[in-house]
Design goal:
Blueprint lengths: L20 H9 L19 H11 L21 H9 L19 H11 L22 H9 L19 H15 L9 H4 L22 E5 L5 H13 L2 E4 L19 H7 L21 E9 L2 E2 L4 H5 L7 E8 L9 H4 L6 E2 L3 E4 L4 H10 L3
Parallel strand pairs: 1-2, 1-3, 3-5, 5-6, 5-7
Antiparallel strand pairs: 3-4
Length: 377
């Protein structure tokens, strides 16, 4: 479910006047966190160490990690396994010695801010004035607390009385993440919603029937799967810039909120990921009208577990791309220069794959234009 800047909370337990509402809005819209059900966010639920590791790992695009267990108290091939290995390897989260990570240990505020500080690269603190430090902040957490207060990471109202030993709850975590990523992550407040002011032909849309009579004149196609709306937005911008047609891939059955809960070992996406490379996700339609008329095809999807979502595989396997130029693109919360869609190349023959790219969910139009120019568009 894509929730673009919702004016009214979709959760029965999140009031739109709650102090953490904007945080919940942000993490749901950007798929940083999910609801605990389709109707509840559980803002008062206490956060543990494994939960935070998983959130930050996902923000990084779920990069590939060594699957060797580093701790004796974590489960192998569990929903948090890769996240904890990644966080500990990067020095973002530390164990407690003797092979102990304590994934279920509840987080308090000074621990959360210390982890966010390390995630930010442990920036130097220029202002160490004691006015930023509560008397009961632990000595090891002081730099992190000052950094968080100076940079507005701490939720409004807690600047003067942090209560650093208080447990962190999901609503508070959502607001801390929103404060951090809107300040430090790449953002693009100038991104245009092309669906509002530029009509892009969509070959699944009957309203565009007249435009599609000219399909034979068009040589570029943008195919995409989008679960949250981020990839759709990027696909539409690419189509606008390249004067391409759009074709949306729709899995059947569609994914529900519960299906994409990567923290639940019994959810659909976790089971599918654990079954890779044998998983098969069927699509409503894999056949594009006048497909032979396209000589360049973009294929886009979100990043799941560090690689392009496997939802697009059925489309690639079901079509003959001989003689065409293909290019994969993807979205995740953190942008990067990583190649997208290496897995897809193994499904095709006699085609040229152009340099793929991964973009932030809040991509910058200029970055996309630069990439398109680099690959000949």
């Amino acid at each position: 479910m894509f929730l673009p800047s919702f004016a009214q909370s979709p959760f029965t337990d999140v009031d739109d006047k709650a102090w953490y509402f904007e945080g919940v809005e942000y993490v749901i819209e950007n798929k940083v966190m999910t609801g605990t059900s389709s109707t509840k966010f559980s803002p008062e639920q206490v956060v543990n160490r494994a939960m935070l590791a998983a959130v930050l790992y996902r923000m990084e695009g779920s990069p590939t990690v060594d699957d060797k267990d580093k701790f004796s108290d974590t489960k192998k091939n569990y929903w948090y396994s890769n996240a904890i290995n990644w966080a500990s390897t990067k020095g973002i989260m530390k164990g407690f010695g003797n092979g102990i990570f304590a994934p279920e240990q509840k987080l308090n505020r000074e621990q959360l801010l210390s982890i966010m500080w390390r995630y930010a690269g442990q920036p130097e603190i220029s202002d160490t004035n004691d006015k930023y430090i509560d008397s009961n902040v632990s000595s090891w957490a002081k730099s992190a607390v000052v950094w968080a207060k100076v940079n507005g990471i701490v939720p409004e109202g807690m600047e003067n009385e942090l209560n650093p030993k208080d447990e962190v709850r999901r609503g508070e975590l959502a607001l801390v993440l929103k404060n951090y990523f809107t300040k430090f992550a790449k953002k693009n407040s100038q991104t245009k919603d092309v669906t509002k002011d530029d009509k892009i032909p969509n070959i699944d849309n009957k309203a565009n029937k007249n435009e599609n009579k000219k399909t034979s004149d068009k040589k570029t196609l943008v195919v995409y799967f989008s679960q949250t709306g981020s990839t759709k937005k990027l696909a539409e911008f690419i189509a606008k810039e390249t004067k391409a047609d759009l074709f949306e891939l729709k899995p059947t059955p569609a994914y529900s909120d519960a299906d994409i809960d990567w923290t639940d070992e019994n959810s659909r996406v976790v089971k599918e990921h654990n079954n890779m490379p044998n998983v098969e996700v069927k699509l409503e339609n894999t056949k594009v009208p006048n497909f032979e008329s396209y000589d360049k095809v973009f294929i886009g999807a979100p990043i799941w577990w560090g690689e392009l979502s496997w939802v697009v595989d059925d489309f690639v396997k079901s079509n003959d791309f001989k003689g065409k130029k293909l290019v994969a693109f993807s979205t995740s919360l953190s942008s990067g220069n990583s190649e997208s869609g290496k897995r897809l190349e193994g499904y095709t023959k006699d085609v040229q794959w152009l340099k793929g790219e991964r973009f932030s969910s809040n991509f910058k139009e200029d970055d996309v234009k630069k990439w398109l120019k680099e690959i000949g568009f």
